[in-house]
Amino acid sequence: MSNPSNTEHFVAPFEEGVAFEELQDAPPRTGYRPSLTGWIGIAVVTFWAVIALAGPWLAPYGENALPFPDAYEEFQVPQAGAPLGTDVADRDILSRIMYGAGRTIGISLAATLLAYTLGVVLGIGAAVSGPKVDMVMSRINDAFLSLPTIMLGLVVVAAIGSSIPVLIATAGLIYATVVFRLARAIGMEIMVMDFVEAAKARGEGRWWIITREIWPNARMPLITDFGLRLIYVILFTSSLSFLGLGVQPPQADWGSMVRENLGALQYGQSIVPVLAPALSIATLTVAINLIVDDVSAHGGGRLSGRM
Amino acid sequence: MLSLILRRLGIGLITVLAVSIIIFFGTKILPGDAAQIRLGQEATEANVAAMRERLGLDQPVPMQYLNWLGDFMTGDLGTSLASDVPIVNLISDRYKNTVIVSALTALIAVPVSLLLGIMAAMFPGSIYDRILTFVSVSLVAAPEFFTATLLVLIFVFALGWGNAVVVGSIEGKGFFELIAHFALPVTTLGFVIASQLIRMSRAAVLNVMNSPYIEMAILKGVPKKRIIFRHALLNAIGPIVNVIALNLAYLVTGVIVVEIYFGYPGLATLIVQAVQTRDFVLIQGLGMIFCLTYVILMLIADIAAFASNPRLRHPK
Amino acid sequence: MPKDSRTQDVIFEARDLHISARREDGAEVPIVKGVNFTVRRGEVVALIGESGSGKTTISLAALGYTKPGLEFTGGQALLLGEDVTGKTTDQLRPVRGESVAYLAQSAAATFNPSIKINEQVTEAPVLHGTKTQGEANEKALALYRALELPNPESIGARYPHQVSGGQLQRLMAAMALCGDPDLLVLDEPTTALDVTTQIEVLKAFKRVIKEEGAAAIYVTHDLAVVAQIADHIVVLYNGEVKEAGPTDVIINRPRHPYTKRLMAAIQPLPEPGQGNIALDEHLRDDPAIEVRDVDAGYGMGVGGQPAVKILRDINIKIERGQTMGIIGESGCGKSTLARVIAGLLPACEGELLLDGQPLPPALADRTRDQLRRVQFVYQMADTALNPRQYIRYILGRPVEFYTGLRGKKRRKRVEELLELVELPASFADRFPHELSGGQKQRVNLARALAAEPEVVLCDEVTSALDTIVGANVIDLLTRLQKETGVSFVFISHDLSTVASFADEIVVLYAGRVAEQGPTDMVLAAPHHPYTRLLISSVPEPRMGWLEEAAQTRAARSGIAGGVEMTEVGCPFFERCPLAIPGTCDKVDPPRLDDGHGHVIECHRELSELE
């Protein structure tokens, strides 16, 4: 096939009356379809959700029951009747994990919901309020944000002692600062969009703008972040429990179970009493992270392939 | 640029003051009286009053705060309520231990993970990148004590090397004994911050790699190495330093859990003790040390972000 | 690739070139569907088409490059006789920047912000070993001079953000030419520039291409620009060549219906005497909107004044049922003026009258009825329409809000509005992202009409649209005005678009009105030196215009380093060929009125300006 010389006039064949539609340059968006790692995450999270809800009914023994009351010995190895062995007080580890699931997940979920309610309401509020209100709120928030979370938690627990409501309130308040900053940033981003200005110019009230213009657009990024925040709250509450400052014995909680059974490592008896609760937390948080990572998968870095 | 940094330093100073107020008044609402705690339940009214005066507790609270802040700045952290020992004595050795383990971790983990993160950004979507991403996504979400347990499982239980608990002090230990001494805490902490650092440095470089000027460099026929080291990294340095500072700040809190896990004689055990015995003078001192370190690292992170902007470095 | 191919005649040839996008689900979407064309030595070939035509994709193929996500799927791209489509990046490295160089649309984004200009300009030849650093520096300096850059000796030592946009665009040309390439690929290199800057850059490009003896592929959507610079035109639609031939043939005797439509969409500056005639039936005593002595700006300054003043001493009247065109270059304050009228940015001085009655400056102080009567249409429909709302809701809300219609009546009104902007009623159940750019802009317009307004402020509503689509929107506006008697304030940087349907024109420069009057008069007898510069800068779709324009343009009015606002005096002083030093830069220019509504702000006498 040879090209026409440049002095020639080439005209493609055409039919009269054919309209030349405006061309679409952006391909239509596609919905979220989980990848393999995404599915793994969803499966694991579902598994733990079921255990958290039904744990006490599924567990072979009670939270503080002894599977082998006649042969008391700490850190018994896994065996028939106690598939994960026993802990420092000869209790069935499997049962405690199942009881602890509800407590660990429940506390973290409640704290995250608290953080979100506070953070989103105040953050979006700051974004739609004038610059003065916004500055005062942001400065106060920045002061809290500039403290390491664990230290803040320690000071609170030292001040008012440890109980589950305190744990939820502390984690909720601490993480509300992070949510505040995110919600404010998202709100600000939407506030400067022309469609918000158009609504203001129309004469719409503040409440209408928040609920009809901002919230529908802020919802998705906030929900994606919820997963991430939940991970950090689980890690935070478990760390406090691990330090002995969260859920108090004899209540089962994954973080405090690790702490209770640390002795098993010291004398090299068994690693299961420590590994089992630690692994439970890790599988849960990693699974959530796999979903979050999958949802927010970025098409970035494609230029690298062209170098 | 300079005014921006000065402004940021000013904000840093205000933050430190805010932090000190939070810590001081946060611990002030503790039930109980320092003088009473020091002297025990049997002390007479008169003794307690005398002790209150000696501790300055008879003065108005804002005055107490100013005294406390002044003492703190001159290096006087007060006296422990639980053990009646000056807090400086109590923490000096442990502070050294915590600094050693943190510094060792940073020295090893930062360069290694930067290298890994940048390499992942160079070959996005490759098998190497996918494995690294999967591992770091997993580790970043796992609690410190899970990583620690994994390491104990591998090294102590499977391979039979050493002990799951850090024993003794570093004095008088030979080279290999020192390695054994620090191996587990440093590796655990290293994994924890490396997973963050790898992800964040990878993202920082990838962000730059998507710029039109990188495409232009490709279209100019610039060799790959030069694209990465001259065109991309130059613009990614600011964000990367920012990432390092943020992660070192994270190290400050991560170290607490790891020290407790391995029974390492650092500040962490002291903190937990202080909280459990409600020794709030000790909590105030330790809280200020941790928060100051954290605030300074965040400050460095922000200044690095300014410095990365060529518009600020070379004004019109 | 043989570098001694200087004798070769054919520099580049696309043979049945196919390029496809690979979707995430693996499906192949063809983008370029069998394109053929040839570029010979010393020849500039223009690829012209609208967005989605594949023109940029084809031009990049000359460098053996496809954007991430795209791939070559057939045919050949022969650069100096060798096919570059099958080559690896390593094989292409010595070719890129050496045999073929690329100029992108936005120089601001394509210069690395952290590296000094000279290093970036000289990088390619030095890395490829065809020039020493010293030789490359000399070449760069010669190019800076040829491109008429200010301070050619020192400009290379600056960072990209330290020079203006027009200068950076020319520096990118220097970067491309530094390696003496056989082929230049220019991708819309003047589209982002203001029109008075564009002409200078075009001139410089044309001369340098000729002097360097390079061949070029010039990608653009603008036929008027193409007529000035190209020898040969390839018209693309949807990845296919629709028509190709020498420039004069395509411009003067287009045969393909698509080319004809492209040509028809260009709005030439109307000949004087053919301007729009006022619609008398709508004329009443009071203008729809009157702006009196308005000053406005941003930020908080001292004494209730804004920190940065954008507008000064603005006086305009918008008559009922007429269109007021506001024209000026980026940063002149034209959008600010619209925002002041809309109440989005309250004026700090002066007053606004709506139908003879005072209109409060701030949005919050206006009544709902006042808000209804003045509507604002944004430039970017993408950000102006809430992506999470159905079109039914976007249009239905203002209907309900202003007219109180509900339920069935509201639904019916939405359908009427869609019909009014020539969209099917079924679009009511779509989200904005399910519409094309032109369709979104129509919805955007319909939202303003939902209020049944008296004045609609249109801020660059056609600027983001393709030529044909934009022309259709203008036709729609003209029809709507006839049917509803609404007044339009039409803001644009594009003089030909404004002139094609505005009854009156206001020319803004650096926040001041330079000239205003009936479109006819302003075009036929521009008085202000800036208006003259502006009119003479609008490219005409005929060959030879650039050379003529270059001769007639006054010497001092070259490229502005950026429009400067001035506290006192005439802001055009620096560029004005008729400036009177000591007066123009010290005293605010007086308003000269010829008694027929034609107003000029200038220190010169009217007779001196004719």
From TrEMBL, chain A:
It is found in: Cell membrane. Keywords: Cell membrane, Membrane, Transmembrane, Transmembrane helix, Transport. It is a multi-pass membrane protein. Coiled coil: none annotated. GO terms for cellular component: plasma membrane. Residues 101-292 form the ABC transmembrane type-1 domain. It comes from the Bacteria. Pfam families: BPD_transp_1. InterPro entries: BP-dependent_transpt_permease (IPR050366), MetI-like (IPR000515), MetI-like_sf (IPR035906). Gene3D superfamilies: MetI-like. GO terms for biological process: transmembrane transport. The chain crosses the membrane at residues 36-59, 105-128, 140-160, 166-183, 226-247, 267-292. Its main location: membrane. SUPFAM superfamilies: MetI-like (SSF161098). Belongs to the binding-protein-dependent transport system permease family. PANTHER family: OLIGOPEPTIDE TRANSPORT SYSTEM PERMEASE PROTEIN APPC, PEPTIDE ABC TRANSPORTER PERMEASE PROTEIN. This is ABC transporter permease. The lineage of its organism: Bacteria, Pseudomonadati, Pseudomonadota, Alphaproteobacteria, Rhodobacterales.
TrEMBL record, chain B:
Coiled coil: none annotated. It is a multi-pass membrane protein. One of its GO terms (cellular component) is plasma membrane. Residues 95-301 form the ABC transmembrane type-1 domain. The keyword Nuclease does not apply. The keyword NADP does not apply. Keywords: Cell membrane, Membrane, Transmembrane, Transmembrane helix, Transport. GO terms for biological process: transmembrane transport. The chain crosses the membrane at residues 9-30, 99-119, 131-158, 178-198, 233-262, 282-307. Its main location: membrane. Pfam families: BPD_transp_1, BPD_transp_1_N. It comes from the Bacteria. It is found in: Cell membrane. PANTHER family: DIPEPTIDE TRANSPORT SYSTEM PERMEASE PROTEIN DPPB-RELATED, PEPTIDE ABC TRANSPORTER PERMEASE PROTEIN. Belongs to the binding-protein-dependent transport system permease family. This is ABC transporter permease. It comes from Roseovarius spongiae.
From TrEMBL, chain C:
It is a peripheral membrane protein. GO terms for molecular function: ATP binding; ATP hydrolysis activity. GO terms for cellular component: plasma membrane. Gene3D superfamilies: P-loop containing nucleotide triphosphate hydrolases. GO terms for biological process: peptide transport. It holds the Pfam family oligo_HPY. InterPro entries: AAA+_ATPase, ABC_Ni/Peptide_Import, ABC_transporter-like_ATP-bd, ABC_transporter-like_CS, Oligopep_ABC_C, P-loop_NTPase. The keyword Disulfide bond does not apply. It is found in: Cell inner membrane. It comes from the Bacteria. Keywords: ATP-binding, Cell inner membrane, Cell membrane, Membrane, Nucleotide-binding, Translocase, Transport. SUPFAM superfamilies: P-loop containing nucleoside triphosphate hydrolases (SSF52540). Residues 5-263, 291-535 form the ABC transporter domain. PANTHER family: ATPASE AAA-TYPE CORE DOMAIN-CONTAINING PROTEIN, OLIGOPEPTIDE TRANSPORT ATP-BINDING PROTEIN APPD. Belongs to the ABC transporter superfamily. This is Dipeptide ABC transporter ATP-binding protein. It comes from Roseovarius spongiae. The lineage of its organism: Bacteria, Pseudomonadati, Pseudomonadota, Alphaproteobacteria, Rhodobacterales.
